[in-house]
Amino acid sequence: MRYNEISHNSHPHHKLKFGYTQVPFKCDGCKEVGIGSNYKCTTCDYDLHTHCALPSPTLSHSFYTKCSFQFLPRPPGTVAHYCNACEKAVTGFVYHCNACGFDLHPCCAKLPMVLDDVSKSPTGEVKLYLYQKVSAPCLRCGRKGRSWSYRSTCKKYNLHVACVKEMLVENWHELYSNSGRSGGGGGDSSTTRRLGTKVPSLKGTLETHHHQKSSKGKVKKGCEMAGLAVQFVISAVLGDPTTLIAGVVGTLMSK
């Protein structure tokens, strides 16, 4: 359920209003980057992913059938915690299982098991399914296994969630290091404009991949489909796996 305005215990002084931004922001809850729908205090430039603003107190996941995850404002204890989905450090809001010690970023915990909006593309039908591990090489790193992955039904396109996170950190270092703030209402607008034109792209990697495996006539279409798959995975990792946000990501990737 979505609310137009909420009170949140992480920001008790002001209410947070539901909004939408086409420019990346850093979530003040989980400390990860987001885009699209969010809850924001424009007075304080405070942002939360929708998943962080309206979390489930407890959560179960089909990958970990014996686990019961509890939503916490920060990881317990003093040792470093890492997300089991993307391998990235957990420094803020988290779903934590006391029994096994597993951790999931809120947006990782809510990653869709199927990204089927990709099938609406004019270039053809591709559905992406989330797997805990796959034996096929990743489009970006070429490695197998590693983290959770999205894989197409045709088995041609596979992308690690960890690789997507690495791409975001590399391209949006200013947001992750706190020198850039938000995509709306506050912060340095010149910084957010620069970030908006630096959405990760796998163009060179995709072209090499398809040149190696396809005839020349199929390279262009293969790159288009793989590029579209990348757009949807990036938008899902950013917390808003919609056709609209995938289109925004695609536009920014092409700049």
From TrEMBL:
Q: Which residues form the Phorbol-ester/DAG-type domain?
A: 12-67
* SUPFAM superfamilies named in the record: Cysteine-rich domain
PROSITE patterns in the record:
ZF_DAG_PE_2
Q: Which InterPro entries match?
A: C1-like_sf, DC1, PKC_DAG/PE, Znf_ZZ_sf
Positions with biased composition (Basic residues): 210-219
One GO term in the molecular function aspect is: zinc ion binding
Quick one: where's region Disordered?
Answer: 180-219
Name the Pfam families for this protein. Answer: C1_2
- Which keywords does UniProt give here? Metal-binding, Repeat, Zinc, Zinc-finger
Q: What is this protein called?
A: Cysteine/histidine-rich C1 domain family protein
User: Which species is the source of this protein?
Assistant: Actinidia rufa
